[in-house]
Design a protein that fits this description.
With about 170 residues, the chain is mainly alpha-helical. It has four helices and four strands; from the N terminus they run βββαβααα. About 5% of the residues are buried. Bound molecules: zinc ion (2 copies).
């Protein structure tokens, strides 16, 4: 962060935008997103970003920067809000885990031997398809299969720079 009396710097000419002063922002929402927001000290500076962004329709909005006190209060409130959200999420996770444990008595824990298949459904499928019974012995074997498939999918997602494993990360069975 920069000198204490400047709120932001102009995204074009890098001139400081002091607390409580007038500045310009772009009317296009992508130019206002908190992470990548653009701030302009003047309309010519706002004009300068247009060729890069290729907006279809845009205008400069005159805005007043928050005072330092307001800004600090806002930052504090945002931090508090974020903390509350994390807490909420943790609680939800706990609930989800509890439900899951209840639904599949065999699941739970994070050991490498954990059962990853719903045994009753698997047995029902095999029974319906073939009339055969199923030995419990296949459950750990299939769970290992799933772990290997999942590990592979994780690697695929990672090498793609993603944090979400997608369907296309799972190799189809040949
Ligand atoms: Zn400027
Ligand atoms: Zn813009």
């Amino acid at each position: 962060m920069a000198t204490p009396d400047q709120w932001k710097i102009c995204s074009n000419c890098k001139k400081p935008i002091p607390f409580g002063s007038a500045y310009y922002q772009c009317s296009v929402s992508t130019c206002q997103r908190s992470r990548t927001a653009l701030y302009f000290c003047s309309v010519p500076c706002w004009d300068a970003h247009l060729p890069m962004m290729r907006h279809r329709e845009a205008w400069a909005e005159s805005v007043t920067a928050p005072t330092r006190v307001d800004w600090e209060r806002q930052q504090a409130e945002e931090a508090e809000g974020a903390a509350a959200k994390v807490e909420e999420r943790t609680v939800n996770d706990e609930t989800a885990k509890t439900n899951e444990t209840e639904a599949h008595a065999h699941a739970g824990g994070e050991s490498a031997n954990e059962v990853l298949v719903v045994v009753s459904k698997l047995k029902a499928y095999i029974k319906a398809k073939s009339g055969m019974n199923t030995s419990d012995g296949i459950v750990p074997v299939l769970s290992d299969y799933l772990r290997r498939i999942a590990d592979q999918a994780i690697e695929n997602a990672k090498s793609d720079g993603r944090k979400t494993v997608l369907d296309r990360d799972v190799r189809p069975l040949s």
